[in-house]
Sequence to fold (418 residues):
Amino acid sequence: MKKVLFDLTNPQKSIWYTEQYFKNTSVNNIGGTIIIKDNLNFELLKKSIYEYVKTNDSFLIRLCFDEKGDIKQYIGDFSPFVIDYVSFSSLEDLAKFEKQDCEKSFTMLDSNLFRFTMFSLPDSTGGVVLTVHHIISDAQTVNQVAPKLMDFYSHFLNNTYPDVLQTSYVDYINSENKYLSSKKYIDDKSFWENLFEKPFSSASLSTNSIDSASLCSSSRECFSISKEEMEQINQYCKSINISCYHFFMSVFSLYIGKVTNEKNFVIGTPILNRTNFKEKNTAGMFISTVPFLINLEENLLFTDFASKISVETLSIFRHQKYPYQSILEYVRKQDPSLPNLYNIMISYQINKSNGSINDIPYTTRWTHSNTNMDELDIHLFDINDTGKLSIAYDYQLSKYKQKDIINLHKRILLIISQ
Fold:
């Protein structure tokens, strides 16, 4: 039967371009682990993984070239795939394996773009390690895998089958095609082109002049802000009527502006780009990065600056569907030497993915692939609903040393306490 070929969506295209730039690396790998704090039935866990993939067609996406040599995608048929099983003697061994698995690159054409591995620990508990390519998945998808997988597993333990919301990534492909020929697309286009009329910089905190185009090797430093401190920050945000995201965006923006002496610069920030209930529950690559233009020309109080960021976020989010690649192409017409609109990205993810499904307790965690396409990505997250905030700095080794990142974080904490 002839395969139905689809164009890549705009979020997928940006991943594909990155893939071509950093060939045969793990720069687009996303890793996540579910640790299930219960004695496991591995046959039923395997059945649950198969059922998850069957009912989430983005996991069946495969890539190929058409007759013209353009990259396309199609939804493959489900067939049982190999799921390895590993017995670990300690959590340290598990952590080593997570790293190794996340650093392995994928064969991009006509093959599965994910790997599931089941594991057990000495106390008879265990879980699943997932490594998936960014072109078929985003962070939101990886957050959904755990509760959906655990729901299947819990039902199979009780000889029942869960209610599954039928969703398909193909619906998003079709809705994006409609958007690209709509009035909304034209409005969004003029919004972004007006915004980037004036000169700006792609601010960098690195003083290292090595060109990192081919050097995407990176490392991660992770810190956390305690529950008590987060309660204080939340109180402060409430008192000036902004969100925690706007608070941190303002703090980091001020820091970048002070250190670089730049008044107009861009920070990348990823957005969900899921505009309705069905999309919010669909697996696949939706997330797109929007270039957030920071202006520090006015001499404002912090509270006024944070409120300004809050207002600007609303207008940016209204036009979030417009492709990042199109903004970049527009700006490059004015300045062909520009490699990217930003060097630093800030992402903020508070996900309630932890918990227990039908009394099966589990926790989730991320794995960093030790590669980074930006010189610095700052991830603010609480994926297990702890009330604490984790801050992970993923930094290119050609641009920063570990001590640079430790000092950067100390200064950020100082600004927060002030």
In short: The two ends are 65 Å apart (CA to CA). Residues 139-157 form the longest helix (19 residues). The longest strand covers residues 29-36. The chain is about 40% helix and 20% strand.
